[in-house]
């Protein structure tokens, strides 16, 4: 005659524990992904030194105040694409020996020139109202990223935009100790709603006697260099954060996917283990 051993009442309790553990893991996945998305996509209130260009009456979005600059290589393919609401503020000392600042908006249609022939360096130059703004783009040593290596602003102190000591040729550059601006993976476009500021001044060994200091303000910046697609369209976005660091937009998806896979494997493994454990208990209870 068969005698049944007392049933193992741990099974329902263990199953409830497994479900609770799975629910906790799912909650952690959702929380981590939510924190990443909120930390990098929530816009902070803007604080700017200037009022942007007045948009047209038919549009009040960011594109209405931002200017688009496209420079093509000799083969006709776009190599540098930039959209920005920009302003240049130049601080100088006037005839009354007072420190004043003259503001100059980056225009919609400057004269563009540059170089896109080299594989590791590209240059974009804008000329407008007697000013010449140049940006030098470079690739990282491994070729996987691009960045702006140098900003350079040249003009004459006789420029009517800010009357000053006439006849001085002013050349201002970004600091040499900040060699990487807007670092971005090759094939992607740098995107930043937060206002960026670049300071330019005369190098110590330049012999410049103007004493001018320029600040370049860049808002709603969308920019890409080393473009290789014939369509001339933006690559995937690479967003800046509110703290000025940089973040690939695919990061939250990758982290969330990895955690979801971990949860699935945990549940599947536990389910398989419990299945064989229960079968063993059922067979062992019969004598």
TrEMBL record:
One of its GO terms (cellular component) is late endosome membrane. One of its GO terms (biological process) is establishment of protein localization to organelle. Residues 67-200 form the Lysosome-associated membrane glycoprotein 2-like luminal domain. It is a single-pass type I membrane protein. The chain crosses the membrane at residues 253-273. It comes from the Eukaryota. Its main location: membrane. Keywords: Endosome, Glycoprotein, Membrane, Signal, Transmembrane, Transmembrane helix. It is found in: Endosome membrane; Membrane. Belongs to the LAMP family. This is GL25041.
